[in-house]
Structure formats: C-alpha cells, structure tokens
Amino acid sequence: MKEIKLETKSQNTWCPGCPNFLLLESVKIALRNIIYKGTKQEDIVMVSGIGCHAKIFDYLNISGIYSLHGRVLPTCFGIKVGNPNLVVLGFGGDGDTYAEGISHFIHACRYNANMTMIVHDNRAFALTTGQATPTTEQGSKVKSEPLGVFPIPINPIKLALSLRASFVARAYARDIKGTAEIIEKALEHNGFSFVDVLQPCLTFRNQDISFIEKKIYKLNKHDVSDINAAMSKADEWDYNFRQEKIPLGIFYVEKRKTIEEKWPQLKLLKKKKIGWWQVKR
Ligand code: SF4
Fold first, then answer.
1. Closest CA to 142 of 122, 157, 172
2. Rounded distance, CA 171 to CA 182, Å?
3. Is the pLDDT of residue 33 over 90?
4. DSSP letter for each residue of 219-272
5. Is the pLDDT of residue 133 over 80?
6. What is the pLDDT of residues 183-237, one digit of tens each?
7. CATH number for the domain including 142?
8. Which residue out of 11, 12, 18, 119 has the highest number of ligand 1 atoms within 8 Å of its CB and is therefore the one to mutate?
9. DSSP secondary structure letter of residue 42
10. How far does the centroid of ligand 1 lie from the alpha carbon of residue 90, in Å?
11. Is there a domain that residue 159 lies in?
C-alpha cells in the first residue's frame, strides 16, 4: 500500500500538551482514511485563519492558503469556485470564526458549498494571551475583561442549525478516535459540513478540561435528520459553566443541493473535472 505522508519537517510550537496536537492526529487519521478510499492527496486543499489553530497549516503536508483572520470561509469558497472538484478543508479558531468571521460563517451555512469547516474552539484568543471570544462563558475574568465577560456566549451549534447548515457536529479534541470519525464523515458529506471541536487551551483556560470531561457524553440513538431533535440536543449546553450535559457527535445531516450542483458554471466544471482556467474560450 502506498505510504501517505502527511507530516512536515516544521518545528511544532504549540505549548507542550496542547490538545491541538491531538486534533492534528485526528485530522491525519481522517485524511488518511479518505485517501485510502480514493481521494487524491493532491486534490485536498486546506485553509487556515490566524491564531494558535492556524499553525496546523505548517504541520500538515497538504496544499493550501494560510489566510487572514476571520477569512477562512471566503477563501475556501473562492477555491471551490475556482475548482469545485477539490476537497476543501478549513481550519479556524473560535475568535477567528465566531467574531471576525461570523458573517462568513452565516453565509457558508446558507450557500452549502461542498466544503468542511473545523473550528478549534478553545474559548479564547489564545495566541494573543487569552482574551475572551464569543464562546467564552459569562463572568470569566480575562485580561480584556477584568470585571468579567458580560455578553451571552454564542452557541455555534444552534447558530449553524438555525441557518440549516447541512452537517453540524461537535467533537472533543482529547477524544482522538471520536474526533477522527466525525471529521471523516464531515469530509465525506456532500455540502457544508461544520465541526465545532472543543479544544481546551492549557495555558489560558485549563479550567475547561475538568468541566468539559465531567459533562460530555456521546449522542446515541439520535435522529440526525430531525432538526427539532438536533436543536433540543444543542440546547443542552449554552457554552456557560452551569449546565449538566455537553453532547458530542453529529447533531444534524441534511441532503440538500450544493451550490456546485445549482450554479451552471460550477456544474460544468464538475462535469468536466476541470478548474476554471482550463475552460476553452
Ligand atoms: Fe494550545 Fe493554548 Fe498554547 Fe495555544 S496558547 S498552543 S491553544 S495551550
């Protein structure tokens, strides 16, 4: 069997023990599996934003673009428009995606391009020393908000469901196998797939590990085609520190036409298996 080389020679500068290492392993497992099943490694493209998560760009032997803060999804979409035959995988942080990039997230759910977004959700702007993001719990005292975070956190699962994202999931980075399985399914989903990965920051939010590990459970006997059931499961945790349960797994899957299947120019590129620059004029 042909060796699949996903490692790079870049020196890893994540803090020792950071769950990003484990998430990277899950991504590699999922990528290896889809490559074994027939996807060409050279047909996979990744995009990262800015933040601790974004260093994954240096540690994965996949082509792509190290993009701007909050601009992962429009970059992914641009790649899809250029060549809808590629497998496009975006990595963003919670600040990156749910603060700067929130409008792009909303429209990515609506457009339903066939691409995957993985959010490394550590509930902090960790690269810039732990300021609050939209998923930081209320009351948290951080350098940027010494009196405690005032706004209600965004529940990204509920937000994605309300926008009818066609694949919505939550994973936990310290569960390598479970995260890899979800990412593989997300990559194989035909449409916009979104995975919010809880990835506690050891340096600035160490308290998240014990809280999350006491509360998580895996969705079981859950009907992923039922939007109301998905909403009800998403309601079990509002990203504050008080609720009893944090469900992990796939909340919702919907078969819906992608933009590539609707847009005539993209349909043509898909049919001919070419990028726009190869179109004869
Ligand atoms: Fe990981 Fe936090 Fe260190 Fe960033 S600051 S590498 S998220 S432990």
1. 122
2. 7
3. yes
4. --S--TT-HHHHHHHHTT--SSS--S-EEEEEEEE-----HHHHSHHHHHHHHH
5. yes
6. 999 999 999 999 999 999 999 999 999 999 999 999 999 999 999 999 999 999 9
7. 3.40.50.970
8. 18
9. G
10. 19
11. yes
Q: How many Å from the N-terminal Cα to the C-terminal Cα in the chain? A: 41
Q: Is the pTM of this model over 0.85?
A: yes
> Given a cut of 90, is residue 281 above it in pLDDT?
no
Which atom of ligand 1 lies at the shortest distance from residue 130's CA? 5
Residue 11 is assigned to a structural domain of this protein: no
Residue 114 within a domain = yes
d(CA 169, CA 94): 15
Q: Say whether pLDDT at 2 is over 90.
A: no
Atom of ligand 1 nearest to the CA of 126: 5
Residue 217 lies in a domain: yes
Mutate to test the pocket of ligand 1, among 202, 206, 207 (most ligand atoms within 8 A of CB): 202
The CB-side HSE value for 53 (13 A sphere, CA atoms) comes to: 35
- In three-state secondary structure terms, 212 is helix
Please state, in angstroms and as integers, the Cα–Cα distance from residue 79 to each residue in 10, 41, 76, 101, 266, following that order. 25, 16, 5, 17, 12
pLDDT digits (tens, 9 = 90+) for 220-232: 999 999 999 999 9
What is the 122 CA–ligand 1 centroid distance (Å)?
Answer: 8
CA of 186 to the centre of ligand 1 (A): 25
> Does any ligand 1 atom lie closer than 6 A to the CB of residue 24?
no
Ligand 1 centroid distance, CA of 56 (Å): 12
> How many structural domains does the chain have?
1
Question: Whole domain around residue 256: which residue ranges?
Answer: 19-276
